[in-house]
């Protein structure tokens, strides 16, 4: 059944000029873009988005990184969108990511790892609502 996931192209990948390459890989893999924008998270936005990681030692670094520059946010639709997108992006740590995955190609470290993908259908819906108004989704 077609479902959706929420992608962010993170500040490192935007800074390094990879927006076009990443969107091409995403659409070539069969994902349909249902919402898309270039935006920037405030520190408060990043704190709220990553609330679940608040107690982790890397939380402050993660919030600073995710709010330091523009990101691309997108809602992507495909059969098994959440798990297929996580396969396409590869492991959190690019050193462990499979060949050909987006993180293997474009991520620089475990913290600055180029892309975000939702970890469940429920979180995909919460994260899509975080970034997009109803009239921005198609
Ligand atoms: P993501 O899986 O998209 O969402 C949580 C993010 O926290 C993760 O990507 C990384 O950007 C970051 N992260 C996870 N583990 C570490 C770590 N050990 N050190 C720094 N950042 C991390």
Q: Assign the CATH topology.
A: Alpha-Beta Plaits
Give the overall average pLDDT: 97
- Look at the structure and give the CATH class: Alpha Beta
- The rounded Rg comes to 14 Å
Overall structural domain count: 1
Biggest β-sheet: strands ordered side by side in the sheet: 2-3-1-4
Task: Show unreliable segments.
Answer: none
The tally of strands reads 4
Q: How far apart, in Å, are the first and last alpha carbons?
A: 17 Å
What does this structure look like?
This protein has helices at 11-15, 19-28, 43-49, 59-66, 81-89, 102-106, 121-131; strands spanning 2-9, 32-39, 71-79, 115-117. The chain is α+β, with helices and mostly antiparallel strands. The protein has one domain (4-136): Nucleoside diphosphate kinase-like domain (Alpha-Beta Plaits, 2-Layer Sandwich), CATH 3.30.70. It has a 4-stranded antiparallel sheet with strand order 2-3-1-4, with helices on both faces. It is globular. The two termini are 17 Å apart. Adenosine-3',5'-cyclic-monophosphate is lined by residues 53, 58, 61-62, 92, 110-111, 113, 116.
How is the topology of this model organized?
Blueprint: E1 2-9, H1 11-15, H2 19-28, E2 32-39, H3 43-49, H4 59-66, E3 71-79, H5 81-89, H6 102-106, E4 115-117, H7 121-131
Antiparallel strand pairs: 1-3, 1-4, 2-3
Helix pairs in contact: 3-4
The chain binds adenosine-3',5'-cyclic-monophosphate.
Adenosine-3',5'-cyclic-monophosphate binds near residues 53, 61 and 110.
């Amino acid at each position: 059944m077609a479902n959706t996931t929420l992608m962010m192209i993170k500040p490192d990948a935007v800074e390094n000029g990879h927006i076009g390459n990443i969107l091409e890989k995403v659409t070539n893999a069969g994902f349909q873009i249902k919402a898309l924008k270039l935006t920037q998270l405030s520190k408060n936005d990043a704190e709220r988005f990553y609330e679940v990681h608040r107690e982790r030692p890397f939380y402050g670094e993660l919030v600073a990184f995710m709010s330091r520059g523009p990101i691309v946010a997108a809602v992507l639709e495909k059969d098994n969108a959440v798990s297929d997108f996580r396969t396409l992006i590869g492991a959190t740590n690019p050193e462990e990511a499979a060949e050909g995955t987006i993180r293997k190609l474009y991520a620089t470290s475990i913290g600055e790892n180029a892309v975000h993908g939702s970890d469940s259908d429920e979180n995909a819906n919460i994260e899509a609502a975080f970034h997009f108004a109803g009239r921005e989704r198609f």
